Amino acid sequence: METALAIVSGSMVAGGIYLLLSQNLVRILFGLIMLSNAVNLVIFTAGGLTHTKPALIEVGRSVPGTAVANALPQALILTAIVIGFALLVFMFVLFYRSYESLGTIDTRQMTKSAPEKPHATDTTTARQEAGS
């Protein structure tokens, strides 16, 4: 089972990176979602897939009687879900505001801060502009 989850999480990482490299803001957002879910799946798999009881100690005992589930991966995943959701909402608002401001979701067309005319890089072009 761990092998199958490793393959699935690796595929999710590959798909997430592919979407992050896109130039469409919606695809970038979906890539971020896929990457955060893949990381959660990796943490879940690394925590061990066992059928054990919750870490509860019976009355009158100082240690659990049987093997118990490790609560650390579960806590890490819950924390990662909350942080991932906050990051997702922030990115969504950021992308929405940039869409309202620039009118496009394509990163190639987001050229509001780009210079309007190219700078002269060699001396002949600079002399021609200075002479005219």
Description:
- By secondary structure, the chain is mainly α.
- It has a single domain (2-50, 69-126), classed as Orthogonal Bundle (Helix Hairpins), CATH 1.10.287.
- It has helices spanning 2-20, 25-46, 71-102, 123-131.
- It is elongated and about 95 Å long.
- 5% of the residues are buried.
Query: How many discrete domains?
Result: 1
Radius of gyration: 25 Å
Helical fraction equals 55-70%
Overall strand count: 0
Question: What does the largest sheet look like?
Answer: none
CATH architecture: Orthogonal Bundle
Mean pLDDT: 85
Q: What fold name goes in the CATH topology slot?
A: Helix Hairpins
Quick structural summary:
The chain contains 4 helices and no strands. It has helices spanning 2-20, 25-46, 71-102, 123-131.
